[in-house]
Specification:
Elements: H1 6-15, E1 19-24, E2 31-35, H2 37-54, E3 60-65, H3 71-86, E4 90-96, H4 105-118, E5 123-132, E6 135-142, H5 144-160, H6 165-169, H7 178-186
Parallel strand pairs: 3-4
Antiparallel strand pairs: 1-2, 4-6, 5-6
Length: about 200
């Protein structure tokens, strides 16, 4: 419409039974639109809710190791890291040094590089190994494809749980309802062994 005086804009809004809504107050001149304000608020609330639902919460799991770790313990910890990455979570791997181990940081570096090479198909190194006091830290993140499949799996599990309460409470064919089972137990039809 172009630049219109305020009185004329208000008159136009009243003529078509709409509201005059200021969309960009900081612009010079301020930008206004003719619209149904209630509908605008409702749609913006829907968009905000949808944006919150689609927003991904980043979870960082932590796995602590020692430089002289037993092979079986290493495999167990690696299994946890793999599980976390498959779930779409980031993993902070910490190597804890004690005593004289602090003078040999290459042991921790070698261990972190070994872990990195064994999980390359699931994730990548987001933060390279670095010494932080007594600890050496590396952050692993899942590849986009792994993360997308984890999100899809979570969504499908969530959809499967949404069943009406009547369906889950109904007994299966051939089963007796819960109330009748309790009544049968009260009549004394079962034998008690007396804890022998």
């Amino acid at each position: 419409m172009g630049i219109v005086p305020l009185e004329r804009a208000l008159q136009l809004a009243a003529d078509v039974d709409l509201d005059l809504v200021e969309v960009a107050p900081m612009a010079r001149p301020p930008v206004c639109k003719l619209m149904d304000f209630g509908k605008f608020k409702y749609e913006s609330a829907l968009k905000a809710r949808e944006a919150r639902r689609n927003q991904q919460q980043t979870v960082i799991k932590e796995m602590k190791l020692r430089p002289k770790i037993d092979p079986h313990d290493y495999e167990t910890k690696k299994g946890h890291v793999v599980r976390f990455l498959k779930a779409g979570d980031k993993v902070k791997v910490t190597i804890m040094f004690r005593g004289r181990e602090q003078s040999r940081p290459e042991l921790g570096y070698r261990l972190l590089r070994r872990l990195e090479s064994e999980i390359t198909e699931l994730g990548y190194v987001e933060a390279a190994p670095k010494q932080d006091g007594r600890n050496m830290i590396m952050v692993l993140a899942p590849h986009r494809a792994v993360k997308a499949s984890a999100v899809a799996a979570t969504a499908s599990r969530g959809a499967g749980r949404e069943r009406p309460a009547e369906e889950s409470a109904a007994p299966a064919v051939g089963e007796t309802p819960a109330g009748e089972t309790a009544a049968a137990g009260e009549t004394g039809t079962t034998a008690d062994t007396g804890g022998q």
